[in-house]
Amino acid sequence: MSLYAFYHLSFSWSSRYKKQLTDEDAARVKLWRNDLAHNRTLAWGDVDLDPERLKGLFELYFEQNADKSRQRKEKYEEYSLAFAMSQMFSPKQKELFKGLGIYRCTKFYAQA
To answer: Which letter does DSSP use for residue 40 in this model?
Structure first.
């Protein structure tokens, strides 16, 4: 929760969870968020957590997640275009489009 607060990220599930925190836990989240902002070690019982490492791993996770989402979206757009073309043109016509470069042009305008 502290990392989400540090990066100003809010999701419906995290907002609901935050409302269920006890006052003590909410204070701990706030303290840890402040520690992250000032690069101070986060203490949790006998464990000390390095703020730079926590932030680095969190950012890496979000970058990988964004890449996967982008790839999923690109595949969806590719399949959507193929489906739309299959509804409008015969397989031989689609082959002609690919050979003439019209397919790429159509793909470009479909994204616009």
So the answer is: P
pLDDT tens for each residue of 78-109: 878 777 777 888 877 777 766 665 555 555 66
User: What does the block give as tokens for 5?
Assistant: 């607060």
Write out 42-88 in H/E/C secondary structure: EEECCEEECHHHHHHHHHHHHHHHHHHHHHHHHHHHHHHHHHHHHHH
pTM of the model: 0.49
Q: Which of 35, 37, 33 is nearest to 18 (CA)?
A: 33
How far, in Å, CA of 109 to CA of 111, rounded?
A: 5
- Contact between 32 and 21 (Cβ < 8 Å): no
